[in-house]
Amino acid sequence: MIAVDFCRLPLILPPPSFPPPPSQGVDFTQAYVDAAQKNICSSSASFNVSVVYGSVYDLSLLKSLAPAGQSFDAAYFSGSISLLPEPLDALRMVAKVLKKGGLIYVTQVSHKQP
Known about the structure:
Elements: E1 10-13, E2 23-27, H1 30-41, E3 49-53, H2 59-65, E4 72-78, H3 87-95, E5 98-107
Parallel strand pairs: 2-3, 4-5
Antiparallel strand pairs: 1-2, 1-4
């Protein structure tokens, strides 16, 4: 899986291949979706990456993002898991749209405060 952080997005990404399959992002803040779409449009990923406004807790939304009749190989939370009100529920929800043996990647960055 290739993980790309466009903004503060939990991204659901398929594994690398050529041509790359579509990658999907979900964020619960419209301003972050707008910023991510701007970043996507100015990158070489614009042909196969999309971001939608929604909730990682919405199973029907997550299922709708998967290619028809398929599941995702992996999911990536980039610095967002600690911002979620129920992080374990988010992980469980994403796990429901992963293929058997699918992976969930989580990164978290700590910033020093002055």
